[in-house]
Input
Amino acid sequence: MSKNTIKQYQADPDKLVIEWADGHTSTYHYMWLRDNAPENRHANGQKLIDTLSIPLDLTAKSVTVNGTVKIEWANDGHVTDYTPEWLRSNAYEVVESESRRNTRKFWDITDFPETPPKYSYPQLTTDNIALRDMLASVRDNGFALLKDLPNESEALFKVIDLFGYVRDTNYGPYFDVKVVTNPTNLAFTSATLGGHTDNPYRHPVPTLQLLHVLSNNVEGGDSTLVDGYKAAEVFREEAPDQFDIIASTLVTFRFSSDDADLSHESTIIQTNPRGDITGIRFNNRSMQTFYVAPEKMTDFYTAYHTFAHMLEEDRFKLKFKLGAGDAMLFDNQRVLHGRIGYKSSGDRHLQGCYADIDSLLSKLRVLERVTRDA
Output
């Protein structure tokens, strides 16, 4: 017997309670059922009913189960049909945040004993399955590595065109990462860069970043990636009180130049009401003076040291060297990127740009639909 088979039901004055064949029980309030009925949805997902048009004291005149659940509403006599499959898949029982967090998959170095595979750019332009898999890697792992890009300026735009649009910043549509005289950013030097997220001083922060290698024949200059969500979850497990401090203390990030002055206040670790980690803003170079109660300042810096050191531990850090024609696309709210310092003799030139992850996820969902049976 299918788990979606209704064993029995009870129509209470304000809700419908269903016991399923597998013993699970679900509760559906009438207000929610009328508001979210499938018949009230356009194919694009938008509701065709105004929630305010539904009375708060809505009740069912009758409920019958015969293959589907039919409810005749007392206020206007309208009859709504619900399939058991829809009711089961949309049941809204409370799920403990801890068990919900445990279903999310993050990574550390043990998940990548070898350098992750690279997706060939020419194949991505003609093969929907390859493009789907690459975009899914960004969704699931927070990053994807690419190869075989044209070795020419602005070729990185061709990758963004596969799923979305470039997001302009004060750097323009793209920026060059190479050693320059009088740099306004340490990225434009040959120094080691610890793991960080870009543009934490923006709101909203750019959610995707693409870095394309035009040349890299220096000694050193390896790229590094860290799954900030994984490190933060381990931080929560190993030092829960310190995690709470970092996730609740507002700090200020800022960038200032001749033509820009950007500032934003945020926590370093962001969580939602369920406790799920939803974002990391970590960039020591951009942190400004901030204010907490005097008796909490020592605790904040102790917690900051713990998390910052953790982000640099080898157990979390993926290291690899990208060559000309390679690129990496990553979630700038999750994955921290950095580099190993290098000798300035030789040539190392990367171009970078930003994009938004909502376009990537939209394209991915469409591709998952059209390649479902492939």
About this structure: The chain is about 25% helix and 30% strand. The chain has two domains: 6-93, 109-370. Residues 196 and 336 are 5 Å apart (CA to CA). Residues 294-311 form the longest helix (18 residues).
